[in-house]
Amino acid sequence: MDEATLFAKTLTRFTPDQAGALWIGILLVIVVAGDFRNIFSRRNGLLAILLLPALPLMDIMVWGFGRQGDPLASWLLGAAFSVLFTLTAFIAAIALYLAFRKPDIDWSVNLPTRGLRVLLAVVVIINIIVVLGRPGEDSGPYTSMGAQRWLETGTMPYGDPLLRGPDAPGYGAAATYGPLLYVAHMPLQLLMGPPWNDPGMEPKDKAYVLPSQYVTKLTCLAFQLLALYSLFEIGRRYASENIGLSMAIIYAGSPYVMGLGSDTALVGGLPYISHIAPTAMILLTMLFLSRPLIAGIMLAGAVGILFWPVFLFPLFFGWYFWQRAGVGRFTTGFAGAGAAIAIMVIYFTGSIGDQGPIDLLISSTLEHQEGVGEREYGATSFSFWGTHPALASFWQQPIFGDTSIFKPSFILFLALSVSSFLLVRGRDRAQLALLVVVLAAAIQLWKTNAGGTYVEWYLPFLLIGIFCSLPAGRTEPEPTSSG
């Protein structure tokens, strides 16, 4: 056993299991922000909403993968996704309601500043232990592999025949993530001295040396720390230091971040960089709202990490447009950074047969995630739609053609995304965050594979929306038009 393995096994002894993650999350919410004077207050009701999706996520990996072929497990998996789907829609609806009717609640927290700082330090230490002590799951190791192959071959995973298709590692999983997520892994791969393989070596070959798991673990940890800093700063600027500390504590200590699903294999949380990284970039967008140029760059960066934040563009564009300040700089930042990312993808992807860079990008990402071909994720049973084939036969089938963008469920979500341009008119920053919740939750009602499990995509913005709501009669400064 090498030193790295021994270190990880030692840390694993201190990582909470899913029951521990749930109880830590519950206790932190109660201790930090619970209303002890009136148990049935609206304040406690909103706090309870933060914890609701945790219940159907308990043991969902057991029913989905641990007991395949068992009729009872299949029924439990379908029931879990039905509850999760309903709760996700409920949270989206609640967020939309609150975006138009502010929660008039006193969010004074229960602990003094010094106590909150100590508690945040403890929770961050637990986060670090979880990241380093648990093995990276799914998206992390595959993205790290894709980044290493890019360094070895000079070709992005979308144009790498050995990383694409049903015969590739993870059935093409290493080529399905955003270009900047691969880039984010490269500094640590270079720093840790990656084992360079021959460019023509098959990644599934036993002789192929994979990158260290600490590359993706430390990259994910960097995104998590960035998210916590951004959340704290947003709370401090919009409300108070204590509110900022409280939001960071509740997010970092939430059961979704700690990890649920089973006591061994998790369905989300810190082992999954795809759950953590895009949230950090969108939080940076919120943090730099008063710097429109930077906000646009940050949102484009979020799209470059995991694509789905592109559906937030109408929302942020509308917010600046109706504020009558900064819309030009925001759009310039987003378009400029987006163009730079697109040029990078085109330059490093190349062509395979008749498929050019854009076709390869779309088929590797969107169509791999939503398609129903051999080993594509759209055919999975690990989802609400996969466990409800009768509903999926209409809502998840293209109206015409065979691309997933013509599914009725996607068309409805796209209409919601576009309409957010109008919905955000007259909203303040906390209400803008609530509309982020609406879109980040609603996309999971369309998303086929594991839809509803990505609670981390919307949880921090729900915290901002309810903790940073301005009291009646108080207005916030308008965004500046400076970059």
Key traits:
single chain; 483 residues; mainly alpha; 22 helices; 61% helix; globular
Please characterize this protein's 3D structure:
- With 483 residues, the chain is an all-alpha fold.
- The protein is built from 22 helices and no strands.
- The chain has helices at 3-12, 18-33, 42-51, 54-57, 60-66, 71-100, 113-133, 139-153, 179-191, 213-238, 241-252, 255-258, 273-287, 292-306, 313-323, 327-349, 357-364, 366-370, 389-395, 408-423, 429-446, 459-467.
- α1 packs across α7 and α7 (113-133) runs antiparallel to α10.
- The longest helix is centred in the first third of the chain and has 30 residues, at 71-100.
- It is globular and about 65 Å long.
- The protein starts with a helix and ends in a 16-residue tail after the last helix.
Structure described in brief:
Helix content is 61%, strand content 0%.
